[in-house]
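If your schedule permits, I should be very grateful for your opinion on a structural question. The matter concerns a single protein, recorded as an amino acid sequence and a row of backbone structure tokens. Could you please explain, in whatever detail you think fit, how the structure tokens follow from the sequence? I set the record out below, with my sincere thanks for your time.

——
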Amino acid sequence: MEAVTPQPVCAMEALALLNCTVETPFDRDKCLRLLDALRSCVLEKKVKKFSVAEQSHAAVVPKSKEKP
């Protein structure tokens, strides 16, 4: 039987907000709605602090194009 890792509290809301900030074009109204959703979640779940687990590929950063 496979072990299932529990989803961190408000993880989907936090991830949606982070991904919104990198979208092009930037949609400020959408990001503000997502911020409000995250705020509601942390108040409902009584979250006091977030932490980020270390991962080798926590963010995808495109390599810069270097001219030879």
User: Anything to note?
Assistant: Residues 28-45 form the longest helix (18 residues). The helical segments are 11-21, 28-45.
